[in-house]
Design goal:
By secondary structure, this protein is α/β, with parallel strands linked by helices. Helix content is 45%, strand content 16%. The mean pLDDT is 94.
């Protein structure tokens, strides 16, 4: 039985897939501009289910940062079942779906057409599927399609498209140029830290994991949590850094790994939380751009990104090594990361589409 062969390939192939995704976006910028120029949007609503709901949260942060437009991230089911939760303004709906066939997202798009004004721009890996066909414009990452149930390269590639879309709408050519460095930066990180995350994943004396992040990185720690739960059936929770002190830190002990996705903007406060958790007995892992930002403190483990990129540009770099850690933990527990228990690649409901 070749457990995990698809997942491992899908994680480790990301530098190449990211490059092709960015090339595809560049080729389609003129058509994207033509679409956007036809509308005068007052707000953006990004939606998805499971992983893509967390991606919608990141996309919302990126969109606000780049455009200043009011942007809301919601589960697709919220728009479907509670359409009045969306403010009544001319809206750019941003459905995100790996498969393009997720029932809740299709129903959300249907409800949007019935009740709201605006247009829909879908981000997907399968542009030919129903969601793309029913949208006004599509951004696709077809090379990121997967055989595994758990989303890895598909998530990151759709994140790249979300980031590029926000930069395009914000007319931020510098960000788009910096994004071209992401594939090589990821390749270097995989080579440098692959052994470290394998060791952490295989360390079954770690009984629970907390992922901490702020700003656009909060949606990312939510996705890291989901990957670890899906693949390795581990007790994992995501929190904003400072919120972790308000109760959840009561769970910390020597069998706990607290992993911080450290930003530039709030790094001083975020590192302080990690130091506090170390004093309570937790093991710590800091993912940070530059070790000098740790203020002289050293966590138990560290991944130094050293990307040289703006903190908003480098958001995708935090995730793939955590996907790899989840893979190794799954394998160490004798599970099959290609086929997590109770899960399927697409959730399809018996509803009228």
């Amino acid at each position: 039985m070749n457990r995990g062969i698809f997942t491992l390939d899908e994680i480790t192939s990301q530098p190449e897939i990211w490059a092709s995704t960015l090339t595809g976006f560049s080729r389609n910028r003129e058509a994207l501009s033509d679409f956007l120029d036809q509308e005068d949007f007052e707000q953006v609503v990004s939606i998805g289910c499971g992983s893509t709901h967390y991606l919608a949260m990141i996309a919302a942060s990126l969109m606000i940062h780049q455009t200043g437009l009011p942007t809301y991230a919601m589960p697709s089911s919220q728009v479907w079942l509670f359409p009045k939760s969306v403010p009544a303004k001319r809206t750019l709906l941003l459905p995100i779906s790996r498969s393009g066939t997720t029932t809740e997202t299709l129903l959300a798009l249907k409800r949007f057409r019935e009740n709201m004004e605006g247009a829909a721009l879908t981000i997907t890996c399968y542009p030919e599927e129903l969601l793309g066909a029913r949208s006004d414009h599509v951004l696709a990452a077809p090379d990121a399609q997967e055989q595994s149930v758990a989303q890895t390269r598909s998530f990151a590639s759709m994140l790249l498209l979300s980031e590029a879309l926000a930069a395009h709408m914000g007319r931020d050519e510098d960000t788009l140029r910096q994004m071209e460095c992401l594939p090589d930066a990821l390749d270097g990180l995989m080579q440098t830290y692959g052994e470290l995350v394998a060791q952490l994943g295989e360390d079954l004396s770690i009984e629970r994991i907390f992922f901490l992040g702020n700003g656009p990185l909060y949606g990312l720690v939510c996705e890291a949590m989901l990957k670890m739960k899906e693949m390795s059936i581990t007790s994992v929770e995501p929190y904003h850094f400072l919120e972790f002190r308000h109760g959840p830190m009561s769970m910390v002990n020597s069998e706990t790994l607290v992993t911080g996705f450290v930003s530039d903007s709030a790094g001083e406060q975020e590192v302080r939380v990690l130091r506090d958790m170390e004093q309570l007995g937790a093991r710590t892992l800091a993912i940070i751009e530059n070790r000098d930002n740790l203020g002289g403190w050293r966590p138990d483990h560290m991944i130094e990104l050293s990307s040289g990129l703006n903190e908003w540009v480098r958001v995708p770099l935090y995730l793939p090594l955590m996907q790899l850690m989840a893979f190794h933990r799954s394998m160490a527990k004798g599970l099959d990361p290609d086929n997590p228990q109770h899960l399927s690649a697409v959730i399809e409901l018996d509803e009228e589409l």
